[in-house]
Write a structure and sequence with these properties.
- The chain has 282 residues and is an alpha/beta fold.
- It folds into three domains: 110 residues, Tetrapyrrole methylase, N-terminal domain (Cobalt-precorrin-4 Transmethylase, domain 1), CATH 3.40.1010; 104 residues, Tetrapyrrole methylase, C-terminal domain (Methyltransferase, Cobalt-precorrin-4 Transmethylase, Domain 2, 2-Layer Sandwich), CATH 3.30.950.10; 42 residues, no CATH class.
- The chain has eleven helices and ten strands.
- A five-stranded parallel sheet has the order 3-2-4-1-5, sandwiched between helices. A five-stranded mixed sheet has the order 6-7-10-8-9.
- The longest helix is centred in the N-terminal third of the chain and has 13 residues.
- The chain is elongated.
- It starts with 11 loop residues before the first strand and ends with a helix.
- The structure holds S-adenosylmethionine.
- S-adenosylmethionine binds next to helix 5, strand 7, strand 8 and strand 10.
């Protein structure tokens, strides 16, 4: 289906990106679209209320978040079909990127409503661009699962990907996640991008081992983790103790000894039989 957004009489939903910290990153176009909207749907009416009042915009708001996205989407579609101009904003950055909005977009398209994205900030891209890691190909994963066994499985599935990997994480899980990443992905180059665009913006570039040993008390605020993709190369300088502890960590995380040895062999490119031997001798 071809859609000429600005040359057709069809209703048009605007998905508007908003700042991820620094309000100076609100674009003139985003302000214009929100100022001209009849209705603004948003993830959290209090957050968006504050943003709008900073820019002297006063509009009717309707809440559309993960838990009511279907019902609220119907209301938005009704308003659009009545000829109203409607914009959707999430709490920060782009709607639909680890935020609600995708179901709304789908329902709009099903109702013959066009969609236009209004450009703006995004935490994943800022982190990737300044991480110093390869940016020609990347894979955005967003949040890993909160449940450890599922998180470890997700990381195992990502293990072979060659693209740079991008994750979102919250401060209360950051250390566990970094330990799991080191255990499964090995000591790859990585970068924690913290508090982007804000006063305390910080980039921590190091191997996953070193990152997993950082005092979590010093890792507060919002964070993106960028990790080097699989190099498909021999992991340098792994000694027998490290090999044994990698196997032990994987077994502790729920793998059978056989699968753990297989995984460590894949990470280190060290022969399975050799790992088996040193693991069982110790
Ligand atoms: N829609 C947003 C976007 O386009 O980036 C992402 C929203 S998601 C619910 C929130 C997560 O994004 C945070 O937990 C963090 O991982 C990341 N994030 C958002 N703002 C950030 C910032 N200023 N600095 C670092 N990470 C940020």
């Amino acid at each position: 289906m071809r859609s000429l957004n600005f040359e057709s009489k069809k209703p048009l939903l605007y998905l508007v990106a908003t700042p991820i910290g620094n309000l100076d990153e609100m674009t003139p176009r985003a302000i214009e679209v929100l100022s001209n909207a009849d209705l603004i749907a948003c993830e959290d009416t209090r957050n968006t209320g504050k943003l709008l009042s900073f820019f002297d915009i006063s509009k009717p708001l309707i809440s559309l978040r993960e838990h009511n996205e279907m019902e609220a989407s119907d209301k938005v579609v009704k308003a659009l079909l009545e000829g109203k101009s409607v914009a959707y904003v999430s709490d920060a950055g782009y709607p639909c990127i680890s935020d609600p909005g995708a179901r709304l977009a789908k329902v709009c398209l099903e109702n013959n409503i066009n969609i236009s994205a209004i450009s703006g900030p995004n935490a994943a891209l800022n982190a990737l661009v300044a991480s110093g890691l390869a940016s020609d190909h990347f894979y955005f994963h967003g949040f890993l699962n909160a449940k450890e066994s599922v998180r470890l499985e997700e990381l195992r599935e990502l293990f072979k990907r060659k693209e740079t990997l991008i994750f979102y994480e919250s401060p209360h899980r950051i250390q566990k996640t970094l330990i799991d990443m080191f255990t499964i992905l090995g000591d790859r180059k990585a970068c924690i991008a913290r508090e982007l665009t804000k006063k305390h913006e910080e980039y921590i570039r190091a191997g996953l081992k070193e990152l997993s040993e950082i005092d979590p008390e010093t890792l507060k605020g919002e964070m993106v983790i960028v990790v080097e993709g699989s190099l498909g190369e021999l992991k340098p300088n792994v000694n027998n103790d490290e090999i044994i502890s990698m196997v032990e960590n994987l077994v502790e995380s729920g793998l059978s000894t056989k699968d753990a040895i297989k995984q460590v062999s894949e990470i280190t490119r060290i022969n399975k039989n050799y790992i088996y031997k040193i693991f069982h001798v110790n």
